[in-house]
């Protein structure tokens, strides 16, 4: 008996076309639906066009609406798996947000395309077919949200876009893919050990993300003291170190009760409280800055948006970011 798979379309390049001016635009609402006949040999597929957004238009609030739409769909029908088509620019963020918050216990796959639907070598159709195969495979259970792209399977927590145009753009630095899509089978060779799950009601927290650079001026951050922000994520140097000039401003934010999460701007490794000089990681940890366990900046921001609904206590947040 065929597995029942829900394909939720949200837009992106997979649903775009190149026009006569060679501009790529979201003109083709039916681009993904045209692939449906090729999917039916792998599963009983139901297509739902929920959004048609370029992924730079995606927001945490829209991600949360997508979560609610999927959970509502499961209240009315049973599906054995979900595939979500999405633009690639923010695909990793939506995948990770859903990994943290979606309560549906079936395989959940996010995919997209680097080439629009009417380009030569369009990668959308094969990515969608591979994703349906992965969603219909029982091995995909309990893996969390996965991203299927270019015949590889990646965990949402680790995957990131690494190239502006290459079809092999999605990679998992330090960890690699957790599986592959072969001609006749879906093959897993490892999986994430743990999965976090948070019950939320909204995704409206105001959490900026800033990146440390050499010679950073404190004036660049002063505007944050005047804003109503709920938290802050800082991409630090190396193991987790910052220019000393900005430390007083960060201390003022902490004194106002604003939690600050530290990640590294390096794409391998994680921040640690090692260096004991002004702006060094050990001093930052002593200030009360929260160290993240290997997330990149954009994902740490989403995790803070989610976990702030559970607690605003710095120590409790640190425990959650240790996971």
From TrEMBL:
What Enzyme Commission number(s) apply to this enzyme? Answer: 3.5.1.1
Instruction: For this UniProt record, give its keywords in alphabetical order, as a comma-separated list.
Output: Hydrolase
The UniProt catalytic activity note for this protein reads: L-asparagine + H2O = L-aspartate + NH4(+)
- Active-site annotation: 13 (o-isoaspartyl threonine intermediate), 13, 88
Is ATP-binding among this UniProt entry's keywords? no
Q: Where is the L-asparaginase N-terminal domain?
A: 4-192
Task: Return the broad EC class.
Answer: hydrolase
| Entry-linked InterPro entries | AsnASE_II, Asp/glu_Ase-like_sf, Asparaginase/glutaminase-like, Asparaginase/glutaminase_AS1, Asparaginase/glutaminase_AS2, Asparaginase_C, L-asparaginase_C, L-asparaginase_N
- Give residues annotated as binding substrate: 55, 88-89
Enumerate the spans annotated as Asparaginase/glutaminase C-terminal domain.
206-321
Q: Name one GO biological process term.
A: asparagine metabolic process
Show the GO MF annotations.
asparaginase activity
Family, similarity comment = Belongs to the asparaginase 1 family.
Write the protein's name: asparaginase
**The organism of origin for this protein:** Brevibacillus fortis
């Amino acid at each position: 008996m065929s597995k029942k798979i829900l394909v939720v379309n949200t837009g992106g390049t997979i649903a775009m076309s190149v026009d006569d001016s060679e501009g790529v635009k979201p003109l083709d609402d039916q681009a993904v639906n045209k692939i449906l006949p090729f999917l039916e040999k792998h599963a009983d597929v139901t297509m739902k066009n929920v959004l048609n957004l370029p992924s730079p238009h995606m927001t945490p609030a829209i991600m949360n609406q997508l979560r609610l739409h999927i959970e509502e769909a499961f209240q009315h029908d049973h599906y054995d798996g979900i595939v979500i088509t999405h633009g690639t620019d923010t695909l990793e963020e939506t995948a990770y947000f859903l990994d943290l918050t979606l309560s549906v216990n079936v395989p959940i796959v996010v995919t997209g395309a680097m080439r629009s639907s009417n380009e030569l070598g369009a990668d959308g159709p094969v990515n969608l077919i591979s994703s349906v195969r992965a969603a219909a495979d029982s091995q995909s259970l309990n893996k969390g949200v996965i991203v299927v792209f270019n015949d590889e399977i990646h965990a949402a927590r680790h995957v990131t876009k690494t190239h502006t145009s290459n079809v092999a753009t999605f990679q998992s630095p330090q960890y690699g893919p957790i599986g592959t899509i072969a001609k006749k089978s879906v093959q897993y060779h490892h999986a994430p050990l743990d999965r976090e799950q948070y019950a939320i009601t909204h995704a409206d927290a105001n959490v900026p993300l800033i990146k440390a650079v050499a010679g950073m001026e404190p004036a660049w951050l002063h505007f944050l003291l005047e804003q109503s922000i709920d938290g802050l994520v800082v991409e630090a140097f190396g193991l987790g170190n910052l220019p000393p000039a900005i430390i007083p401003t960060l201390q003022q934010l902490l004194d106002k009760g604003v939690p600050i999460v530290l990640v590294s701007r390096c794409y391998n490794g994680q921040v640690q409280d090692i260096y004991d000089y002004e702006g060094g990681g050990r001093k930052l940890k002593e200030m009360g800055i929260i160290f993240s366990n290997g997330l990149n900046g954009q994902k740490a921001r989403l995790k803070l948006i989610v976990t702030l609904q559970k607690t605003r206590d710095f120590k409790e947040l640190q425990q959650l970011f240790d996971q």
